[in-house]
Amino acid sequence: MAEGERHSLPDSSEDSPPATQNFIIPKKEIHTVPDMGKWKRSQAYADYIGFILTLNEGVKGKKLTFEYTVSEAIEKLVALLNTLDRWIDETPPVDQPSRFGNKAYRTWYAKLDEEAENLVATVVPTHLAAAVPEVAVYLKEAVGNSTRIDYGTGHEAAFAAFLCCLCKIGVLRVDDQIAIVFKVFNRYLEVMRKLQKTYRMEPAGSQGVWGLDDFQFLPFIWGSSQLIDHPYLEPRHFVDEKAVNENHKDYMFLECILFITEMKTGPFAEHSNQLWNISAVPSWSKVNQGLIRMYKAECLEKFPVIQHFKFGSLLPIHPVTSC
């Protein structure tokens, strides 16, 4: 299945889409549970999952410290994320009675809401300026909900959709695959962790210990792919503090585990039961395949997550058109 789906990243030789394309502001299309069928048959779903699997293949067996090319577009995306990070420093938490959901997050978010199109315009070349309002919607959806002051896998999916859209308009290319995960997505994770810590954001729709993680999913998929065929690190090692401390700078999966252990107290098996179970899987390739299945079932096929997803001209709701 994965083989046929790897068509999301344009080759460097491919031209950008014609400037005549009609870009539209993405909107919600999944209003009731029966609408989920439309999503699973949609071009958006095929392109989104194809994008995730392409990147999964691209980072297989590679450390974060692996040498890869960094294009100008990648540098600009990192600069965009650095701006979001700086705004957190400029918007300290406010004193309030409730411990979670610091209202200063709303101030931070309002700034992003106002500046999103300007930020995206720094990444998108002028001949594609018409795409900016459409692409910027996914950036605004990618950082949490300003009403509930929460963050979860649906927001993470919006960031992946944002990157997928940049691939579809030719801003990101096939040569950027590794940098998309290791440089851009990794920086995004750092900024999201800082948001979660600074404003004490609630997990969106957390399933408690039965979820994989309160906030993220994709770094576990791509992080397990990085560890496939590792000479000595096995899935059982990620619950070993020493192995995590020594290797987290090389592997996203272990960086996620480190963050969980910093944020949660008590035995790992209790606060992260699903991950604890995964540590018993014999190989990283089996972990990776299992996580992809779980991501589809627990995130992409769950109405509470997908009802918030937005569809436009780049990730359309219409059924898959055969290439």
UniProtKB/TrEMBL annotation:
Q: Which family does it belong to?
A: Belongs to the PTPA-type PPIase family.
Which EC class does it fall in?
isomerase
Q: Is Membrane found in the keyword set?
A: no
Q: Which GO terms describe its cellular component?
A: cytoplasm; nucleus; protein phosphatase type 2A complex
Q: Pfam families attached here?
A: PTPA
Compartments, as annotated in UniProt: Cytoplasm; Nucleus
Give the catalysed reaction(s), semicolon-separated.
[protein]-peptidylproline (omega=180) = [protein]-peptidylproline (omega=0)
Explain the purpose of this protein. Answer: PPIases accelerate the folding of proteins. It catalyzes the cis-trans isomerization of proline imidic peptide bonds in oligopeptides. Acts as a regulatory subunit for serine/threonine-protein phosphatase 2A (PP2A). Modulates PP2A activity or substrate specificity, probably by inducing a conformational change in the catalytic subunit, a proposed direct target of the PPIase. Can reactivate inactive phosphatase PP2A-phosphatase methylesterase complexes (PP2A(i)) in presence of ATP and Mg(2+).
Q: Quick one: a GO biological-process term for this protein? A: mitotic spindle organization
Sorted UniProt keywords: Acetylation, ATP-binding, Cytoplasm, Isomerase, Magnesium, Metal-binding, Nucleotide-binding, Nucleus, Rotamase
For this protein, the record's SUPFAM superfamilies field holds:
PTPA-like
Checking InterPro entries in the record gives:
Phstyr_phstse_ac (IPR004327), PTPA_C_lid (IPR043170), PTPA_sf (IPR037218)
| Protein name, per record | Serine/threonine-protein phosphatase 2A activator
User: Has UniProt tagged this entry with the keyword ATP-binding?
Assistant: yes
Enzyme Commission number: 5.2.1.8
**Molecular-function annotations in GO:** ATP binding; metal ion binding; peptidyl-prolyl cis-trans isomerase activity; protein tyrosine phosphatase activator activity
Disordered: region residues:
1-22
What organism does the UniProt record list as the source? Camelus ferus (Wild bactrian camel)
